[in-house]
């Protein structure tokens, strides 16, 4: 068993043209930890998350998942790692997207079974069985034959979570999983995520749901302009920190929810 | 107008229309394969491949099909490759429609949200599976109306292959018109047959669209 931290980021920077979206990120996530990334839009939260499975490349620094350098060849400057090795790392990391990204031409069951067939090499029948069990786990056993267009946003996102979980990831990344949902559908998705956290899944969650961050996260990182400027347990970040930009950010939430 | 002329020629015209139809269908089938391959080249991160794709499209879209046909018909034997007229005809149609189909697919590809491939990448899909299982099916659905359009254009363009000596509908009409001295009747019949074939294709396309939309 590997005793390296689940995620280790050291001095990670990235620029889009002249815009520095990530500016020297250092972050360590241990096994079974839940870390929430909060911050204003454009602060680099999603980019940071996407560097962990290399959907986004980074310019300098290191991202390690279970000790393995992500995206580049170890000790060889900036040479890209072979696609096969990258796929191997990605197999162990689940990702849930803001817009679900379900495949519209496949049923709910098809969406969950497809990666099992294409990536894990399971036979169709076995993949179907496991996919069915996964849909049951997110409370959608009765929706397996539906196409995504016929499901509510909350149901679609739960299918997307089931699709990731079916691959038995050791780490789950959530990129604003409830931001595209109607308010009354947010709860069902957060509940699935809460259950997952309780079962000991390591999770990194970009979110605007402060309640979820306060109650479920072990650590919260506040990003602003590509830097982590506050980091620690929820109580510390949400209530004790005196960092002015963080206070200002939280103030907008208090005002919005004050009715 | 003499109805008897039409009635006499009709079975032969119909047989020639059959040739038109299957040459066109083979042409578009070849065009699909070539179009998909050239599209892959065009969107490839490898510069020379992308360059090849762009040049291919420019050439086959920029030179009239009639001229392409004549080039294939006269050029290949000139360099010692002997191709039967039928093969030259189908090949030319496929090469030309490949250029248009490539652009249709490229348009469809940009219409598939980026997140579709990203979801597959994040799960560890190999690139070939992403194309085959995620992108192509969606591109096909998006591009179906344009592909039906292309098929109809191709069926009409197939009248040009009469110049390389394939007895399809236009050439057959030509022969009858000349031998019976009743061009009006014969060409009207040919026009009617072309129209009928294209109406059937359009109807089949609409049916396919409905079926894909249901899924």
TrEMBL record, chain B:
The lineage of its organism: Bacteria, Pseudomonadati, Pseudomonadota, Alphaproteobacteria, Acetobacterales. GO terms for biological process: amino acid transport. It holds the Pfam family BPD_transp_1. Belongs to the binding-protein-dependent transport system permease family. HisMQ subfamily. Its main location: membrane. It is found in: Cell inner membrane; Cell membrane. This is Amino acid ABC transporter permease. InterPro entries: AA_ABC_transptr_permease_3TM (IPR010065), ArtM/GltK/GlnP/TcyL/YhdX-like (IPR043429), MetI-like (IPR000515), MetI-like_sf (IPR035906). One of its GO terms (molecular function) is transmembrane transporter activity. SUPFAM superfamilies: MetI-like (SSF161098). Keywords: Amino-acid transport, Cell membrane, Membrane, Transmembrane, Transmembrane helix, Transport. GO terms for cellular component: ATP-binding cassette (ABC) transporter complex. It is a multi-pass membrane protein. The chain crosses the membrane at residues 20-41, 53-74, 86-105, 142-166, 186-208. Residues 17-205 form the ABC transmembrane type-1 domain.
